[in-house]
């Protein structure tokens, strides 16, 4: 690891929040220090908006509350409840080393103790890895199903901020050309239009998943100056294996179940200007940046790049951007209550 580069990059981070998230992310990615990451997010005192799928707070009223999972997901669930004035009475965990101790100010009990706690107890599952096992454990013991909340991803999911458009140093221009790599459902493009007040020149979007692409063609057909490519982005134009995934996590993969077109941004633009490039391409960000090298060097577009898919992204991606141009300033923001969605901004 190039310590000189790390120092250079750290010094180019423009505010304390960026430096804090960088340190937390690097420790988590390289030292697997997940609990410190969640502690750090809590310390930022962000106001989180709960996913509509996970809004269980009305169900908590008039009941004691227990969180099943005394780990990182449990700690963030406790914080999200605390923000809404809901007291957690117990944590539940199958780890005997945790039982009988305090976690976030509440007693950790066993699943056996929970089963005999009565119907006035409302249980929120909090583990992306073990939620299904927790749920099975409770239902097999005839714990009332109506008193169990099973979040969609196994833990309550919440967001904060305006992802991709939340950088303090980012300003829109009258002739914006927005490149959206990983379009998914077109929502980011609508957010871009709102961010720039509807004043822009062109939107160029890429979506390799054929089902998402077909949906975008229908739902975004009223957006002016909008172009959508049924392609992934990469270093070079060509073909590649692709793994379809129904949850929005489709990605380029050597073990993919189909073949898709790949385009480089430089090839599509043919020397024309881009003012803003956003990338969330499930681990192909660095290769996609390499395919935009000439555009970055010539025009210095604003960049909003995901740096959470691979542990090395937080090092390799800013290092590559700095090799292309040394006059970028950097910010880092994190947008969820779990480990997903850390974005590097370059302006």
Overall description:
This protein has 347 residues and is α/β, with parallel strands linked by helices. It has helices at 3-12, 16-31, 34-43, 57-60, 72-83, 111-115, 131-140, 187-195, 210-219, 265-269, 285-290, 293-299, 313-324, and strands at 49-50, 64-68, 90-92, 102-103, 106-109, 121-125, 148-149, 158-159, 177-181, 202-206, 226-229, 232-233, 238-243, 251-252, 258-263, 276-279, 302-306, 330-334, 342-346. The strands form four sheets. It has a seven-stranded mixed sheet, with helices on both faces. A six-stranded mixed sheet has the order 4-5-3-2-6-7, sandwiched between helices. Strand 4 and strand 5 (106-109) form a beta hairpin. Helix 2 packs antiparallel against helix 3 (34-43). The protein is elongated, with a radius of gyration of 22 Å. The two termini are 25 Å apart.
Notable features of this structure?
347 residues; alpha/beta; 7-stranded mixed β-sheet; 6-stranded mixed β-sheet; elongated
The largest β sheet comes out as:
7 strands, mixed
What is the arithmetic mean of pLDDT?
A: 92
> Rg from C-alpha positions?
22 Å
What's the end-to-end separation, in Å?
25 Å
Low-pLDDT residue spans: none
Report strand order across the widest sheet: 11-10-9-16-17-19-18
Number of helices: 13
Q: What percent strand?
A: 15-25%
Shape: elongated
Describe the secondary structure blueprint for this structure.
Elements: H1 3-12, H2 16-31, H3 34-43, E1 49-50, H4 57-60, E2 64-68, H5 72-83, E3 90-92, E4 102-103, E5 106-109, H6 111-115, E6 121-125, H7 131-140, E7 148-149, E8 158-159, E9 177-181, H8 187-195, E10 202-206, H9 210-219, E11 226-229, E12 232-233, E13 238-243, E14 251-252, E15 258-263, H10 265-269, E16 276-279, H11 285-290, H12 293-299, E17 302-306, H13 313-324, E18 330-334, E19 342-346
Parallel strand pairs: 2-3, 2-6, 3-5, 6-7, 9-10, 9-16, 10-11, 12-15, 16-17
Antiparallel strand pairs: 1-8, 4-5, 13-14, 13-15, 17-19, 18-19
Helix pairs in contact: 2-3, 3-5
